[in-house]
Amino acid sequence: MIVVDDAGDLGKGSKYFVLAGVTAYNDCRSLIREALNTAKVRKFHFVDDSDKVRRTFIGYISKMELKVTVYVLEKGGVKVKEEELLPILLRNVFPDKERVLEIFIDDFLNNEKLKRETERRLKEEVSRFFNIPCNVKLINEQCVQVADYFASIFWRHIERSDDTFYNEVKSKIKRVIYDIQ
Length: 181
Hints:
- The protein is an alpha/beta fold.
- The chain contains six helices and six strands, in the order ββααβαβαβααβ.
- It is 39% helix and 24% strand.
- Strand 4, helix 4 and strand 5 form a beta-alpha-beta unit.
C-alpha cells in the first residue's frame, strides 16, 4: 500500500510545496488504531496535534515498516496543480510486493468529475510505469495520516529549518526529489 499527502501550499503562502509518498510494508492500520487509543484522539493531523500527540504518533510510526519518498517543489512563482505533480512522486515511490498496487491519496479535489479523471489518469500512468495493475483512490484512508506527518515534518524542515521532529523520522525517508521552478 502507498499513501500520499501534502504540506505547504501551491499559492504564495510558502516557498515550498511537499508531497510524501509512504510505502507501508506491514499493517499500519492496527498500529494507528493503537496510537489513537494511546493518544486519546480521533485522528492524527500534524498541524492540529499537540507536540505530545505528535511524539506519541511518531513513536508508533517508528514501529512501522515504511519507505518514504518526498517530492519538494520550490515554487518560484510558477502556478502548478497538485494533480500535475503526483505522477512525478508516484514514479519514484517504492512499490510493495502486492499483486495489485493500492495507492491512497488524501482527497484534495472538490470536483467529483475531476477527481475521477485524476484517479483514472494516475492509475493508467502508474500501472504502465511499474508494469503491474494498480488502484488509485483519492480518499481519506486512515494510513494517509502517516503521509501527512512525513509531508508536514519535511516541510517544516526545509521551510522553517525546524528539525524538531525531522531527526526522529529521517531514517524512514529513502528518496528526496527536489524540483526548482
